[in-house]
Design goal:
single chain, alpha/beta
C-alpha cells in the first residue's frame, strides 16, 4: 500500500477484487487470456448496449466454470472503472441430491463478495412432473429462471446476468435449426416477458475453452452440473460434438459462425415477415 493510499480509500469491492486475483498466475499466457476475456466482454457490453439504464446487476452463479469466469471478469471491469453498476452474485440451490451447499457461500464469504443464496426445491417439482429417464434440463432451467427474475426484483436489480458463452449460443442455434425448424439462438440481450427486467449474456463472444483454462488457472471451486444424473444423451451434447468436430477439421469455423449470427441479411433468407418480398420489384422509368 502506498503512503497516499489509506484504508478509507479501499472499498469492499477493491478488497474483493484483490482477494479474487491474489493467487492468479503471472504467466504471459494467462495475462493474454485474461485480457482477451476482458476485451470480449467489453465488446459485447458495447455492441448490445448492455449498460443503458443499468445500475444494479444480479449475476447468476451456478458454481460452474462459466459463471465463475463471468463474475471474475465483471469484477475486474468494475475495478478498472469500466463497469458502473453494482454487482450481486446469486446462487439458487434447487435441491439436487448431494449438492455441496457450503462451497459457494464459503468461497464468496472468503473474498468479501456481496451475494445471496436462496433455496428452492425445484428438483422435486421436475422429478414429479417428468417420467424417469427424461431429461430434466429444460424444465429445470425455466423454473430456475423464474426464481432468478423474482430475486432480481427483490434485490432492486435492473438485469439478470447469465454466463452463457459462444458455444452455448452456437449449440442453441443448431438445435433450433435441426429440431425446431427456425433460425434463432440465445440473444446477448433480452427483455423478459413482463418487460421489467433485462437478461444479459456478456460472455457471448467468449470461447468455452478459454473459460475452462481461466477457471483452472484461477482454481475456482467448481460444482459439477451432473448432480441430478440427467445430463447423458442430450441433444445439446450432440451439437457440441458436431461443432467440436467441425472446429478440428476446419479451425476457426466457430468464430466464423458466430460472426454470421451477427451479420444476418433478411433479403437473402426466406422469411417474408422479415423482408418485404412482395414490394421487391424492378424499377421502371
Amino acid at each position: 500500500m502506498s503512503d497516499a493510499e489509506t484504508l478509507d480509500e479501499i472499498t469492499p469491492e477493491d478488497s474483493a477484487f484483490r482477494a479474487l486475483f491474489a493467487d492468479a498466475p503471472s504467466s504471459v499466457s494467462f495475462q493474454r487470456l485474461r485480457k482477451r476475456l476482458l476485451r470480449q466482454v467489453r465488446q459485447a457490453i458495447s455492441d448490445f448496449s448492455m449498460l443503458e439504464g443499468q445500475k444494479r446487476w444480479l449475476v447468476a452463479l451456478s458454481g460452474g466454470k462459466d459463471s465463475y469466469g463471468l463474475l471474475a471478469v465483471l469484477m475486474e471491469l468494475k475495478w478498472r472503472g469500466l463497469l458502473p453498476v453494482e454487482l450481486i452474485a446469486c446462487n439458487l440451490d434447487q435441491g439436487q441430491p448431494n449438492f455441496p451447499k457450503h462451497v459457494l457461500p464459503d468461497y464468496l464469504e472468503s473474498l468479501g463478495i456481496k451475494y445471496r443464496i436462496e433455496y428452492k426445491d425445484t428438483y422435486s417439482i421436475v422429478t414429479d412432473k417428468l417420467a424417469p429417464g427424461s431429461t430434466y434440463c429444460s424444465l429445470c432451467s425455466r423454473l430456475r429462471r423464474g426464481h432468478l427474475y423474482r430475486i432480481a426484483r427483490e434485490e432492486g436489480c435492473d438485469a439478470l446476468v447469465l454466463g452463457h458463452h459462444r458455444e452455448d449460443i452456437l449449440e442453441t442455434f443448431f438445435m433450433n435449426l435441426f429440431h425446431g425448424g427456425r433460425l434463432a439462438t440465445m440473444p446477448a440481450k433480452l427483455l423478459n416477458d413482463d418487460g421489467d427486467l433485462t437478461l444479459l449474456r456478456p460472455l457471448a463472444y467468449a470461447a468455452e475453452d478459454d473459460l475452462a483454462r481461466f477457471a483452472e488457472a484461477m482454481r475456482f471451486p467448481i460444482i459439477p452440473c451432473d448432480l441430478c444424473g440427467s445430463q447423458d444423451g442430450l441433444e445439446r451434447n450432440a451439437m457440441k460434438k458436431m461443432l467440436a468436430d467441425m472446429e478440428t477439421r476446419m479451425p476457426g469455423r466457430k468464430e466464423v459462425m458466430l460472426r454470421a449470427l451477427c451479420n444476418a441479411n433478411p433479403s437473402h433468407l426466406l422469411d417474408p415477415k422479415l423482408f418485404d418480398f412482395a414490394g421487391l420489384r424492378p424499377q421502371t422509368d
